[in-house]
Amino acid sequence: MTDEISPQALARKQRFIEEKLNAGGFDQLVDQQDSRALRLYFDERGDIMSLTQESQSSVNPLWQTYEFDQHSLSILIDKDTNKFWVVTGKNGKCTVQLRPQATVYTTLKEEDILKIEFDPSASSADCMISIHSDNVTIQLSDKFKESMIGTYPIQATVKGKRIFKFFICDPEQQNVIFDTITVSMVELLTMKQVTKELVADLRHCSIYTTPLFSKYLRT
After folding, report:
1. Which of 85, 107, 130, 195 pairs as cysteine with 46 (C-beta 3.0–4.6 A)?
2. Residue 128: which of 17, 23, 14, 216 has the closest Cα?
3. How far is the CA of 30 from the CAs of 26, 36, 72, 75, 102, in angstroms?
4. Tell me: the pLDDT tens digits for 16-62?
5. Residue ranges of the alpha helices (H) in the chain?
6. Which residues pair with 128 in a beta bridge?
7. How many other C-beta atoms lie within 10 A of the C-beta of residue 32?
8. What residues pair up with 163 in beta bridges, in sequence order?
9. Structural domain boundaries of the chain?
10. Rounded distance, CA 169 to CA 179, Å?
11. CA 217 centroid distance within chain
């Protein structure tokens, strides 16, 4: 008695046969699959120089590369690769990581910086911010918006400021910034919530800002 072959296995076998025929043979199929794979090239500092499907012969011979898994490279697709770099560990293993930003934030005094915290006991605050897998949302409370009625959004300020910055930082090192979110008072007053794209999934990170609103809340 022989084991019955599942329909899924038969379908995979048929798909392989068709792909091999279309490619012109097994060797040609392997070459096609290799050419479709993404390959990352970087310099000695870890700066990303190229993310490509081209063969190695078509890139700068001084660039370095590494056998990254395709999933780790897929996060770079359609992203600004200047915001990432390659970090090489002591064991020689390379990983793609967000590059910490160099901003004026590092020159601010400790007392001028506020970490925006979760607070299970609070349901609202003047300014509320939430980090999602690929974006961040910021909104003002209805109560705060009501206090601004009669003021043109373009003229509205908080402590003289019309532009607000939020720094998405390493949870252990607040001076290591992975992304900076800038939002205007006009956006906050005219939209229910403002959505800004993030360079990566930063839900594990901390949020800091220069305190201008009376109360902040991370939701």
Report:
1. 85
2. 216
3. 6, 10, 22, 24, 43
4. 566 556 666 655 545 554 546 888 999 988 999 988 876 665 678 88
5. 7-23, 26-36, 70-74, 142-147, 185-190
6. 139, 217
7. 13
8. 184
9. 7-98, 104-218
10. 7
11. 22
